[in-house]
Amino acid sequence: MKIPSFIYVLRVCIAVMILLLMPIGQALAADITVDADCSLQNAILSANEEEMVEPRSDCEAGDVDDGNSQVDDGGNVIPAGLDTITIDVSGADEGVIALDGKLTVTSNIAIEGGGLAIEGGGNQIFNVTAGSLTASNLNIRGGWSDDNGGAIAVSNAAVTLINSVVSDSGAKKLGGGIYAVDSDLTLVDSAVTGSATGVLTKPETPEADDSGAETTTAQAEEPITWDTFGGGIYFEGAANRLVVNRSGLSANAAHSKGGGVYIASGSASIRNSTISNNRAGTDGGGLYNGGASTLTHVTIVDNFAENIGGLVDASELQLYNSILSGNAGGDCSGTLNALIGSLIRDGSCGHDGLTDDPMLLLLDGIPPYYVPQKGSPALDAASPGHCLLTDQRGIDRAPDACDIGAAEHKDGAFEFQIQSALALLNPPGPGGGADAEEREQEPMTTPIPSLCGQLPGHYRVEGYTYSSHCKTADHLGIGNQLLVNNGAIDAVDIFGWVAQPLEMCFLRPSGAIVLLDAATSPRTLMPLRTRTEDGWICATVDRNGTAVLMPLEFFTSGAIAEPIWDLAGCTVRTVDILNLRSEPSAASAIIANVLNDVTLTADKRATHYHRVNYYDIIGWLSSSHLSMSGNCI
């Protein structure tokens, strides 16, 4: 039957209207999976609509950016042409993607990391020059730049980190962890740690498993005569905004200003966050502010700088319900626009409120954070008009009587979270009232000294760079009850950027070293291969953590599995008739007797025993009755 022309036209019009009413771009969003066939580099090239490179170039095609954004069911605006990249475990080697150069982002990309890590291998990791990058559940580490932004550099774009960590990165100039200029930067439930500026040389590069990235060659070391601001974050942008929410900046170092974060311009909102253990060579160990910033429920503690270790305000800053305490060189400098409901331990910045010891307890993790203990003056003392609904961990705050600082005190809330406890017992030195005007930057011909070189004489640290730092730790600082109860002898916290392995030594008659690895929460207990040389007990440490010297009996007590070390090139000779035992223990069965003056090869070592093959009988001999040569430790 012939269709009347007006009906045909009507149908065409309806079809056109349906197409017009469909959400623009809804079918265009691309989902790209990084796996054995598609490298992360190629996934980003695909999202950027650029040509991919071999190998592992079998990636989904990226979205077409038609310039129209969308709104999802929750009312959130989705940028135009947003591509989602999901990293599958098959696309990583034992949970790590090792790059051989930086990844350039020029479009709108969201990366779901699934808790995996991207290792920069001594190259800048992300360079965002247009569009936006949102990284979720991702560990971004080991980046380096001979310019700005060790791990991430963003210019005229936007970066958002959600439940992610930027760590162990360095830049020669600005922004050891993140460098953001004329860009919005947002951190939610995230951390920037162990990063530094003024890092002149590229760290050792692990073998890469991702391809096609742009590489950077390290420069020869030279005197530092340029600005090196923002060990953790450098932010600059008059029309842009920095947001840090429920996050942490810790163990970062700047050669000059802003160890944790340097805000050059623009606006900043920092809420429910902790800024701790950062270091600056001149001003603002924790934070240096040159913009319009608002800090609400922020804890700034245990930072260091020659001039004001805590917070330096050189522009406009409002401080609400926050704690500043224990910062070397002073807690605060500047004339704040608002100072309400806060505790400043040394009374600086014209503070006339609480100055008592906040009695903070350090809860270790990523990021570390501090809670006021029972009896703390910070309890229920915040300004009700500025109380946030929850704290740094998401625990509800009492709206009419909340606590000062990033973390709310709540009985029983930390039963399974406490890994390290450190009472802030040392009051800061005199400070406050320093001139808020920014001094002209003086060229520095040598890097700021590492704290590792300032330990007492019965400690020795070798191989550290100035971006690595050390401090002694008592039993509270160790914070691991298993180690404390089993007779922990001595301990040193190692923090900052451990660019290369260092040697940690204790001048003690006996013992062996374990490391509480700061990269995990709770901290993993790692026995270290320990050796004795000229009265020193030493081990190699290649990451942040607490090195603890334990009695030898701890390793054979059953408190932990006794570490067994492989040996190569170890020859032993018996100096008596010895029992060959089935296990490295005096309580184990005797399986043979070994005559005096017998030379054997040892292939394994325990705390008190070496394993040998004696006429095809494999067993353990007491180390104290052996003469050794070669690599026997």
How much helix is in the residues? under 10%
> What is the CA-atom radius of gyration, in angstroms?
28 Å
The quaternary structure here is single chain
Number of helices: 5
Instruction: Report the principal-axis shape.
Output: globular
How far apart are the termini?
95 Å
Low-confidence segments, ≥5 residues, pLDDT <50? 18-27, 71-77, 205-209, 211-221, 413-447
* Total of domains: 3
Average pLDDT, rounded to a whole number, is: 83
Q: Per DSSP, what share of the residues sits in E-state strands of 2 or more residues?
A: 35-45%
Q: Your description of this structure?
A:
By secondary structure, this protein is mostly beta strands. The protein folds into three domains: 80-219 and 240-386; 452-556, Immunoglobulin-like, CATH 2.60.40; 565-630, SH3 Domains (SH3 type barrels, Roll), CATH 2.30.30.40. The chain is 6% helix and 38% strand. The chain contains five helices and 52 strands. The strands form ten sheets. Strands 6-8-11-15-19-23-26-29-32 form a nine-stranded parallel beta sheet. A hairpin with a 2-residue loop joins strand 50 and strand 51 (617-622). The longest helix is centred in the first third of the chain and has 17 residues, at 5-21. The chain is globular, with a radius of gyration of 28 Å. The chain starts with a helix and ends with a strand. The model is unreliable at 18-27, 71-77, 205-209, 211-221 and 413-447 (pLDDT under 50).
